[in-house]
Amino acid sequence: MDESESVAFIGLGVMGFPMAGHLARAGCRVRVYNRTTARAAAWQSEYPGEVAATPRAAAEGAAFVMICVGNDADVRSVVHGDAGALAGMQRGAVLIDHTTASAELARELAKAAATRGCGFLDAPVSGGQAGAQKGALTVMAGGAGDVFDRAKPVLDHYARAVRLMGPAGSGQLTKMVNQICIAGVLQGLAEGLHFAEQAGLDPLAVVDVISKGAAQSWQMENRAPTMARREFEFGFAVDWMRKDLDIALRTARDNGARLPLTALVDQFYGDVQKMGGARWDTSSLIERLR
Q: Within 10 Å of residue 129's Cβ, how many Cβ atoms?
C-alpha cells in the first residue's frame, strides 16, 4: 500500500467531516475518531472508512494523522496521554494539525512528535465550510520541507492551495494574519452596508456596482447579500472568530505588533455575543450597527 493511502482523521466537525470524506473518496484508507460517536457513525454512513474508539486507535498504522478540533486544549486532549494519537503513531508517520491554534502549541507538538520519530506540520486552513465541502481549502503550513513534501499530495485532496510558510508555528502565524485581515474587511463592509441603508440606497445595487472596482473582496461577494437579508445562521461562528482573534492579539503582545483595529473589532464581536449572536456568522457585525 502506498503510504498516502493510510490516514487517520481526528475531529469531524463542520470542517473535518468533509475533509475526511475527500480523503476516503480519493481512495485513502481512512480511520476516523470523533469525541461524539454519533457524528463518527454519521460519517461512516456517508463515506467508506473505519471508526476508532480512541485517537490512539485511529492513529495506529496510519502514515498521516490529521487533527481538526476546536482549540489548543482540545488538540492536547487528543494528542497526548495513553489514549492519545501520539501513543499510537508509528515511527516515520506525520502528525498534521489543521486546528486554528497557537504557534506555541505547534512548536510543542513538533517537539513531541520528534521524540517519537514522527514528523509534524501545523496546517490551519481557510475557506470555511463551503471550501471544505468543495475540496477547495487553502492550507498554510509550518514544518520541515521534507515532511511537507511527503504530506502535500494528501493535503491536495481537499485543498486548492497548499504552501509551506516556514518552520513549525509558521502556519498558525499565517492563519493569524488571515483572521486579522478578515476582521477588518468585515467591519468595513458592515459599516458600508449600514451607511447605504441609512442613506436610502439599495445595498445590493450598491454592492453590485462597487464590487466591480477597488472595493471588491471575497467577503463582499459572498456575505453582502446575506448581510442585507439579515441572515446569519450559518458560516463561521462569532465564538470561533473571537477565539482566533484572542490568539492573534496575545501573539501580538509577545512580538510587538500593533493591532488597534483588530482589538476594536474583537470588542465589537463581544457586543454581538451579548446580543445572542455567539453562533452567528462573523458577518453579523452589521447587526450591532443596526
A: 15
The percentage of residues in the chain with a pLDDT greater than 70, rounded to a whole number, is 99
Compute and round to an integer the Cα radius of gyration of the chain. 20
Q: How far apart are CA 2 and CA 13, in angstroms?
A: 27
Of the residues 134, 152, 175, 212, only one is catalytic, namely 175
Verify whether residue 111 is a known catalytic residue.
no
Report in angstroms the alpha-carbon separations of 177 from 56, 148, 171, 184. Answer: 33, 21, 10, 11
The number of residues making up the chain comes to 290
Model-level pTM? 0.95
If one counts every other C-beta atom within 10 angstroms of the C-beta of residue 198, the result is 10
**Residue predicted with more confidence, 215 or 4:** 215
Cell numbers that stand for 183 in this block = 476582521
CB of 42 closer than 8 Å to CB of 13: no
Domains of the chain, start order: 3-167 (3.40.50.720), 173-289 (1.10.1040.10)
